[in-house]
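RETRY 2/3 - previous attempt timed out on the joint model. Re-submitting the same 286-residue input unchanged.
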Amino acid sequence: MQTNKLKVIYDKYRENKLAHAYLIETNNINCLLNDLKELIKALNCPFKYNSFCSTCNLCNLIEKNNLPSIITITPDGAYIKKNQIEELKISFETKPIYSKYNIYIILNAEKLNHSSANAMLKFVEEPTEGILGFFITTNKDIIIPTIKSRCQSYVILYETEDILAKLNIDQEKLESNLSDLKEYLSKIASNNYINHKEFILSKYPDRKDIEILFTILLKAYEENLNKLLHKNKSTLPLSSLNITDNLEFTIKKMNILSKFLQDLSYNGNIELLLDKFVIEMRSIHE
Ligand SMILES: [Zn+2]
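RETRY 2/3 succeeded.
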């Protein structure tokens, strides 16, 4: 729990001062959910929990989102609906069998409307021992006050590497680069890779734009590497590329990409570099 941003809640638990409901505002839901999962393991683990508790059945079930006593609610359409909360209440009428707590997580808690928030109130106004709630939002200012006033609240911020600022491009340009990269990757992996150069050069006549395009690709592999190393299952900013390479292939491809970008910056011949890139990328899978 040392590097976990929710350690503050774990410390309260150790002091026996756990609240029954928490409202957490964050700038990065995915990172927060990872930290929350670790916290939930730490609160429930019957053994001496550590971040690598892989021996324990309970931690494994929590990792796989397979524990019935942990329920996550997300908006059904525009709002979180009253019947979703009613179903939650029914599920939590019984005490958990394996874990210490029945835990509900309300994602996008700002999407609770008046009727679902009212249905929720019983949990937060008359807390039942053993039920623990987490309301997660990116903006706690717009949370319905009846909920807000009954939760212990925290703002948990993560440093995010801002690829847009780094490459000096806007979201729209990133999206179009990602969509072209997706097509390019499937092209160079297929037998129909002959016109790979034309594909790039017709859309990206400037060396600078090619540099941005391939830097995004390198970042996407970096993201995949982090995902593999940290067993992170969340959705990441560049995940629309659907990179599924294993650790070995990911590292090899990152090396090829770094070399390509280096050669590109040394004014290497673009057509030759693109040819070399495709041959090297394909050779990994041969
Ligand atoms: Zn455990």
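The pocket of zinc ion is lined by residues 41, 45, 47, 49, 53, 56, 58-59 (CB under 6 Å). Closing ticket.
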